Amino acid sequence: MSERMPYTPSMSTLVCVPIMVTDEADALRDAALAREAGADMVEFRVDDFFAGTGDASDAARIARLVSASPLPCILTCRPTWEGGHYDADDDVRVAMFERACVGLQAGEHAPRYVDVELAAYNRSDNLRLKINLCVDAEREQSAGLILSSHDFDSRPADLTRRMLSMRSHGAARVHKVAFRARSLRDNIELFELVRQGDRPTIALGMGEFGLMSRVLAPKFGAFLTFASLRDASATAPGQPTLAQLLETYRFRSIRTTTKVFGVVGWPVSHSLSPRIHNAGFGELGVDAVYLPMPIAPGATPGDNDASLKATLTELIEYGPLDFRGCSVTIPHKESLVRVARGTGWEIDSGAAMIGAANTLVVSREDGRARVRVFNSDAPAAIESIKGVLGSRELAGLVIGVVGAGGAGRAIAFEAARAGAIPIVFNRDLARAEDLAGSVRSATGVAARGLAWDSMEGAACDVWVNCTPVGMKNGLAPGAMAIPEAALNRATASRAIVMDTVYAPRVTPLVKRARELGCTVVEGLEMFVRQAALQFEAWTGLSAPTETFRRVVTEYDA
To answer: Could you give the 3-state DSSP secondary structure of residue 514?
Structure first.
């Protein structure tokens, strides 16, 4: 195999919408919609549409479809053995490619590219010869060859061998590799495949861990990325929609200099943070993008810490990514502080006292990364509560903190620092008592930890749900963490009820508390305040909080 220099991209990364063809008219309508929505190309997946019987009219339908496309197209007929639906003879499939690329009739034109699996291309000299005739660059109308490799289960063990095999075939204009990402760290290998490719390369991670490879394709010079026209028409797991790619992630503004931020947690698919922070970057002209960054929890706190440390460290140390920070949510807030202590990152006094942090900031000087962590939940929550107190003072009030996780710790400590008295309710009583004891030791305030069932008879001036109960797509989405009896008592005593859950905006708890006449603080308020503190720490600019509120409100409408 001859040596080649790494490929240098000379054009912007394309956006391609895949279309699973079952009806010619429907496929062309979707292609037109893709063009109107801003796509550059479509991929006609004809696995189901092409019968594979050898009937000439069957192949002619494909040629008509390609020629009528309102956008340049990739023609793909993916076999079942590589994740597609085509289950007929390879020779018939190749004959269809020949008809669409070489046997053109008047008014027809070839597809821009045909996608052929590396395994099929390597398997038969005859098939390879026929495919090469289809993509012969000497013809006036010539399709380009995309050689592809897919693994829907995991990273293939022979990935390096596959890439070397692709490089050995001079007829291929584009290389494509896609595999199910096992963690965020797999994205780094995918980025390197693009950066080190000897010709235009597509390298994509499937599944929720691989979204980064799809959105950041232009940062690393990938040939194209795929985005579905709608959720239901995705052709691979983890594929974003065209609207998400172009609007939420501002794909057209991503370049090599773009800084990368994200939200780390499990799950993070529900998070509205990408919507608000990307909207903020766009409004203020910040060259940055914010992504969901799922990190699965470990079986033990130690495992959790190890996974978080390994992932964050690799993201920080991979210079081409230019990772500049992240929000950290359930279940990693306490782990973040432990990781920061173990690695020597800076920890602000509030996060150190609380033992939980939700923000990581990375700054770079002379090629060296400086990392610090802090907690924006705590001040955001207390300021949200103060906003509805009226003439009352927070000092001396009893705060019912429901949940002893990261958000519960932040609010319990910050409330005590403000002179309030936190009572922590948790399903694991020992965890509640441990948090209350830590608050007493750090602040001298008489905090208490009580069993979950104790809420039924408790009387608090302020109730704060710090659990995921009521979260859309989360734990018990239709439930309330605070029982009806406690809410009835809260109504009688003019208590305040606050939910830290912000998606949906009106949670079951918020809805019921309002019906009973309680003063309510929506999770939206705390969410916007804490996000603003993060945005300002990352950018040095005042956060566009009204834009944040508008984005969340519009999403929830």
So the answer is: helix
CATH architecture of residue range(s) 14-244? Alpha-Beta Barrel (3.20)
What pLDDT score does 10 carry? 62
Q: Verify whether residue 130 is a known catalytic residue.
A: no
The one catalytic residue in 150, 175, 259, 332 is 150
C-alpha distances out from residue 152 to 42, 80, 82, 463, Å: 22, 12, 8, 46
CATH topology for 379-521 is Rossmann fold (3.40.50)
What are the Cα distances from residue 32, in Å, to 29, 158, 232, 491, 531?
A: 5, 39, 18, 56, 38
Q: Is 176 a catalytic residue?
A: yes
- CATH 3.40.50.720 in the chain, residues? 379-521
Q: Active-site residue 386, yes or no?
A: no
Supply the CATH classification number for the domain 262-375: 3.40.50.10860
Q: Which residues of the chain have pLDDT under 70?
A: 1-7, 10, 473-475, 557
> Which ranges in the chain are annotated with CATH 3.20.20.70?
14-244
Our answer to whether residue 219 is catalytic in this structure is no
**One of 176, 270, 277, 332 is an active-site residue; which one?**
176
Return the pLDDT at 1: 38
What pTM, to 2 d.p., does this model score? Answer: 0.92
Structure tokens at 306: 């190890």
